[in-house]
Design brief:
The protein is elongated and about 60 Å long. Strand 6, helix 4 and strand 7 form a beta-alpha-beta unit. The chain has a seven-stranded mixed sheet, sandwiched between helices. Strands 4-5 form a two-stranded antiparallel sheet. The protein has one domain: Aminopeptidase (3-Layer(aba) Sandwich). By secondary structure, the chain is α+β, with helices and mostly antiparallel strands. The protein has five helices and nine strands, in the order αβααβββββαβαββ. Bound molecules: acetyl coenzyme *A. The site of acetyl coenzyme *A has 24 residues, from helix 2, strand 6, helix 4, strand 7 and helix 5.
């Protein structure tokens, strides 16, 4: 996804850009003037809003799950994957995660209150899908969050995401839930497996 401005000053120089509620990507240059600061923040907002809209469209949702305003009011983390090539670069996709308190059913059907890391929104640009970029994003997130895939809860996974989780992480046996979240075998296991 391209934008009518250079993404490097907005998102930093790296292939991965990580943003939280403060909307300040790591690695962006120190700011020289309040006016420039305002401009870069506005551009970051545009990038996040447009990504959220594209993801919602891809999933057939009427309202985006991801926007700059929602990022500010939640403790979520947004991982963006970039094409850093000049002149302006592009955003290839994003993955949003966050901790949420949930009541989930374990294998025996008992309610358990937990606060897992949840996959909340995930999108790779249509022109870039099925090239391994989703896996690259997901693996980066698991590594930075120090998380094993079977410990995640997934909010309303699309059929594409279910196929993705099965293919790359062997997550194919869901534990049925009464809410929109999906968890997989191993979620409640006391043994920790590496990501
Ligand atoms: N149809 C079926 N499965 C697909 C498709 C597709 N069009 N695209 C990707 N997948 C799954 C398949 O398992 C595929 O393996 P295969 O090609 O051997 O069948 C695997 O993903 C490919 O892995 P990657 O290339 O690493 O994944 P990709 O870069 O395509 O990203 C993603 C996966 C993010 C799900 C992408 O397909 C996408 O953006 N889809 C549209 C939006 C969406 O459904 N997002 C998830 C919403 S639910 C949520 O976010 C909680």
């Amino acid at each position: 996804m391209e934008f009518p401005f250079d993404l490097a000053p907005v998102l930093g120089p790296e292939r991965f850009c990580v943003v939280d509620q403060h909307l300040r990507p790591a690695g962006t240059a120190p700011l020289v003037s309040p006016r420039r600061e305002q401009q870069l923040e506005q551009r970051l907002r545009t990038v996040i809003d447009e990504l959220g809209k594209a993801s919602a469209k891809a999933q057939g949702l009427s309202t985006p799950v991801t926007s700059a305003a929602r990022m500010e009011s939640n403790r979520h983390v947004l991982y963006m994957l970039r094409d850093t090539r000049p002149p302006r670069g592009a955003v290839l996709g994003f993955l949003k995660v966050g901790y949420k308190k949930l009541f989930l059913l374990d294998q025996d059907g008992s309610h358990v209150e937990v606060e897992p890391l949840c996959v909340l929104d995930f999108y790779v640009h249509e022109s870039q899908q099925r090239r391994g970029l989703g896996r690259e994003l997901f693996r980066e997130m698991l590594q930075r969050e120090r998380m094993a895939p079977q410990r995640l809860a997934v909010d309303r996974p699309s059929p594409k995401l279910l196929g993705f989780l099965d293919k790359h992480f062997g997550l194919c046996r869901p534990i049925p839930q009464v809410n929109n979240f999906v968890i997989f075998e191993g979620f409640f296991s006391t043994r920790t497996a590496p990501a």
